[in-house]
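Predicting holo structure, iron/sulfur cluster bound.
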Amino acid sequence: QRPLVEVRDLKMHFPIHSGLLRRQTGAVKAVDGVTFDIYEGETLGLVGESGCGKSTCGRAVLRLYDLTSGEVVVDGRAIGTESQGSLRRMRTTMQMVFQDPQACLNPRMTVGAIIGEPLDEHTDWPRKKKRARVEELMDQVGLNRAFLNRYPHEFSGGQRQRIGIARALALKPKFIVCDEPIAALDVSIQAQVVNLLEELQDELGLTYLFISHDLSMVRHIADRVAVMYLGKVVELAPRDALYDEPLHPYTEALLSAVPEPDPAMAGRKRERIVLKGDVPSPANPPAGCNFCTRCPKVMEVCHRIDPAFREVRPGHFAACHLNDPRYGPEHSESAEPT
Ligand code: SF4
Ligand code: MG
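Done. Tokens:
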């Protein structure tokens, strides 16, 4: 299976300017060296607390920002170096579904015009053909075509997210970044939208990067999961391996906070791990492992050396010295490198 998306050591640093002369005095390292692949037809979940850099990462992968460094290849093309013109053409391949459909649906445009806007921008189809495509899209996302001439405010939150999805699908993309697509919706509606995304994926062969802070939902939808903390992916694994046998202490802590939905399983529930302190500022991450200020398993080496992102088991990557035979629990003093 080939990756549709390849991300290599991606960095997104935003300069901080201060003082009278607005000199650059530092940088917010929102994404600080992230590497992953997304295979064709799969859903990669990207999880982490707010502010960890997951949204910035998703936007950078679509080149909504200029990359600070690193490489992003989508469908065989290095998008970090593409010109604006060819990026515009690539927008047909890659699209985004946003958290808050409200914010990206023009209240003065009809639903038909909103869904058809990408066709106006990227095709010279005649009106009739565009209209037929818009109606087809409305069918695909479960919106009544009779509502074509209505305005966004006449719809519920769930229906507005369907409008956003239809618009994202208009140009038949292969790859969609879904940034917290259900976070703004009522819990009762969330499952419907997630099911729709899954149906569309099967039907259209879509590839998703699914960004969410909701670990239960990600377990439901993702094939593999990447966990971000302070600008870095600290663990990446096939879904069940990540949830059942996490290798990184941060993942363990996140999972320990997920409520166990099945009461029969409650006895097996992990003990809740409460992390001390706050997430450090991405403008000033700690030396060594970026989790060392809060990690319950921190060791001396963690303050000195940034752990490599290693494939610990086949397909299961983690950035933690505990998984390194030189430093982990099995190491003997003599194995310590000098
Ligand atoms: Fe914790 Fe050290 Fe592993 Fe970082 S490298 S997660 S501080 S044990
Ligand atoms: Mg976000």
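Residues 17 and 24 are 4 Å apart (CA to CA).
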